[in-house]
Design goal:
The chain has 66 residues and is of the alpha+beta class. Helices cover 33% and strands 18% of the residues. The chain has one domain. A hairpin with a 7-residue loop joins strand 2 and strand 3. Pfam families: HicB_lk_antitox.
């Protein structure tokens, strides 16, 4: 899966990462590299939570690649 991540440096010097396609999915790090590592973990957690909230009927499950 590929997602666009926006990383900006805040006024305190931290790097803040946001995933526009996943509302509420954001993280930060002291360095750009740390922010990238942390946002990957945040994405995994976001997807796990969203998947657990919705039961999937495998008979209706369709995988789509865009």
């Amino acid at each position: 899966m590929k997602l666009h991540v926006i990383i900006d440096q805040d006024e305190a010097g931290y790097y803040v990462a946001d995933v526009p396609a996943l509302p509420g999915c954001f993280s930060q790090g002291r360095t750009h590299e740390e922010a990238v590592i942390n946002i990957k973990e945040a994405i995994e957690g976001w997807l796990e939570v969203m998947e657990s909230k919705h039961s999937v009927d495998s008979a209706r499950f369709v995988e789509v690649t865009v």
